Automatic annotation (TrEMBL):
Lineage: Bacteria, Bacillati, Actinomycetota, Actinomycetes, Streptosporangiales
Protein name: Acetyl-coenzyme A synthetase
Top EC class of this enzyme: ligase
Keywords on record: Acetylation, ATP-binding, Ligase, Magnesium, Metal-binding, Nucleotide-binding
Species, as recorded: Actinocorallia libanotica
Ligand binding (ATP): G385, E386, P387, D409, T410, W411, W412, Q413, T414, D498, R513
N-terminal signal peptide: none
Cofactor: Mg(2+)
Gene: acs
Catalytic activity: acetate + ATP + CoA = acetyl-CoA + AMP + diphosphate
Length: 641
């Protein structure tokens, strides 16, 4: 994206006020913004007090060596103690921490007292395997309670975990084990996906490198596994451990975890998060953004623990707050397309946090499916991962939330560790598609090429002006890359890589990665806005837009559209006109291609690079990062390529 600011094309006038009842009892009121803007560090110090510290900090923030931040300097704290023990000590041991639902329908209810026993046993087991504070442990697991238990056990003893998404291949796992020099890998024989056991252990067997001394294996599916001397069954080792384990206090800046993000170029970056600031901001944001009432809410984040959303909003934030959560192992269409709504009904889920890609899938599957279930327990809905199209937002609010529930569109990244920009459900008048305002204590802005704040009504680059408690501390083993990637475009500003605009009220709209912005006849146009315009047409289920080189306009807009229902009755000319009517003639796609599916990563993000190859008439490039590489064949077949 260049000098010319992103065009502010989309007009969206729908507004949703917070429900009166929710507003009256909201966890956060407007004064939080005032207090945080008057004294940001005092505000964060106040939030850190939600946690139980073993030793108080002496300074809230040390920013003398930017961009290397130290938060809560001198403070000592144990993350696992805060997520587990203290709730038991406060008499809430019998409260359910996790309602776990396996894909085949088996269930486990794990109370905080159960969790304490299991985490202590696992911590003792790690000790027996010779894992000590500072060691790295790779975790390659299905969505089962032992995954959270393993993470907490690492946190308890001060071993730094690196969770690798269970859908990743041998190479991805090996690179991550190698980069972090992991001493132990925790895995399972397999997990259930799409109605069948899906093996994990064979991938680990091929990926282990010299640094790995042991592989600790949970038996989940009972499938056959190869076995070597370094392998240890979880049930053999963990079950016989003592249920007592004294949590050691760790420095506020002790490395809690590494999580790799792939990015578009180069090898994956090991994003490093530390202890005190990370837990402070995940706990605060989970309390604030979801208005969590731990006594009555049943909270469900549908992410996989292999992504940062799972770290911050399945494990650390909710448990630090003493929440009751649902954790689901499998896929949304197993054994039927109403599985999620069945789970919401069964557990009385009150807060649901999911991704736009899932919402659009449910839209495609049809309104009649959620309509068969009682979803009246829901009171707050959240969205994360990519911009939510206004139409998807409204569908989510109406069809899942019964028109009652606020939708919080939460912008953040693996690097930010916790939510940064979001409406607050008791305060904000929601606008479909907008992430609205930086949270109290966060200073996000939209700037132009010269790093000047853009006026309302304009677009540009999303930046963060001040450090925040859960920020990444570095790229594991590569401080230089940390500085180069995030802090070098403009001195003193963190550049997130996203485009955004401020509307006339100053509220923020995310416009996608700046690499995806199109330059059409000298205008920067956001792929997100064109996609949202397409999705607002009743015959469109999903859309992906790319800029394809064009001799006349520089780039021209090519759109790939999944029709709702039968493709036969979709009129491409009508869709082009629809976009022009919504966004103006400049945004009218040069071509619209009807396709049955879209290429997506395993975390649900559209891989535009491959679509650009098609639009520009090249053979399509590397499809190995796709969740389902066969999708490309289906697309090519539909296009007659
Ligand atoms: C990128 C970060 C944050 C956890 C999941 C993704 C995009 C994320 C939103 C949102 C618009 C969003 C951004 C961001 N993104 N949430 N609410 N609206 N875009 O973590 O894999 O590190 O990806 O996801 O482009 O930079 P991640």
């Amino acid at each position: 994206m260049s000098q010319d600011a992103l065009s502010n094309l989309l007009q969206e006038n729908r507004r949703f006020a917070p429900p009166a009842e929710l507003a009256a009892a909201a966890n956060i009121t407007e004064d939080a913004y005032t207090r945080a803007s008057e004294d940001r560090l005092a505000f964060w110090a106040e939030q850190a007090e939600r946690l139980t510290w073993a030793k108080p900090w002496t300074e809230v923030l040390d920013w003398t060596n930017p961009p290397f931040a130290k938060w809560f300097v001198g403070g000592e704290i144990n993350v696992a103690y805060n997520c587990v023990d203290r709730h038991v000590e406060a008499g809430r041991g019998d409260k359910v921490a996790l309602h776990w639902e396996g894909e085949p329908g088996d269930t486990r209810a794990i109370t905080y007292a159960d969790l304490k026993r299991e985490v202590c046993k696992a911590a003792n087991a790690l000790g027996e395997l010779g894992v000590v504070k500072g060691d790295r442990v790779a975790i390659y697991m299905p969505m089962i309670p032992e995954t959270a238990i393993a993470m907490l056990a690492c946190a308890r003893i001060g071993a730094t975990h690196s969770v690798v998404f269970g859908g990743f291949s041998v190479d991805a796992l090996r690179t991550r084990i190698e980069d972090a020099d992991a001493k132990l890998v925790i895995t399972a024989d397999g997990g259930y996906r799409r109605g069948a056991p899906s093996a994990l252990k064979p991938t680990v067997d091929q990926a282990v490198t010299k640094s790995v001394e042991n592989v600790l294996v949970v038996r989940r599916t009972g499938q056959e596994v190869a076995w070597t001397d370094r392998d240890v069954w979880w049930h053999d080792l963990v079950d016989r451990q003592s249920e007592e384990h004294v949590p050691e206090a760790h420095d506020a800046e002790h490395p809690l975890f590494i999580l790799y993000t792939s990015g578009t170029t180069g090898k994956p970056k090991g994003i490093l998060h530390t202890t005190g600031g990370y837990l402070t901001q995940t706990a605060f944001t989970h309390h604030a953004v979801f208005d969590l009432k731990p006594e009555t809410d049943v909270y469900w984040c549908t992410a996989d623990v292999g992504w940062v959303t799972g770290h911050s909003y399945i494990v650390y934030g909710p448990l630090a707050n003493g929440a009751t959560s649902v954790m689901y192992e499998g896929t949304p269409d197993t054994p039927h397309r109403g599985r999620w709504w069945e789970i919401v009904q069964k557990y009385g889920v009150t807060i649901l946090y999911t991704a736009p890609t899932a919402i659009r899938t449910f839209m495609k599957w049809g309104d009649d499916i959620p309509a068969q279930f009682d979803l009246s327990s829901l009171r707050v809905l959240g969205s994360v991962g990519e911009p939510i199209n206004p139409e998807a937002y409204v569908w989510y609010r109406e069809r899942i939330g019964g028109g009652r529930t606020p939708v919080v569109d939460t912008w953040w990244q693996t690097e930010t560790g916790a939510i940064m920009i979001s409406p607050l459900p008791g305060i904000t008048h929601g606008k479909p598609g907008a992430a609205m305002r930086p949270l109290p204590g966060i200073s996000a802005d939209v700037v132009n090429d010269e790093a000047e704040s853009v006026p309302n009504g304009s677009g540009g680059f999303l930046v963060l002006r001040e450090p925040w408690p859960s920020m990444l501390r570095t790229v594991w083993g590569d401080d230089e890359r940390f500085v180069q990637t995030y802090w070098s475009r403009w001195p003193g500003l963190y550049f997130a890589g996203d485009g955004a605009k401020k509307d006339d009220d100053g509220d923020l709209w995310l416009l996608g990665r700046v690499d995806d912005v199109m330059l059409v006849s000298g205008h920067n146009i956001s792929t997100t806005e064109v996609e949202s315009a397409l999705v607002s047409h009743p015959k469109v289920a999903e859309a992906a837009v790319v800029g394809a080189s064009d001799p006349v306009t520089g780039q021209a807009i090519a759109a790939f559209v999944i029709p709702r229902g039968d493709a036969g009755d979709v009129d491409v000319e009508e869709l082009r006109g629809h976009v022009a009517q919504h966004l103006g003639p400049i945004a009218k796609p040069r071509q619209i291609l009807l396709v049955p599916e879209l290429p997506k990563t395993r975390s649900g993000k559209i891989v535009r690079r491959i679509l650009q190859d098609i639009a520009e008439g090249r053979p399509t490039g590397d499809a190995t990062t796709l969740a389902d590489p066969a999708v490309m064949d289906h697309i090519k077949q539909a296009l007659g390529l």
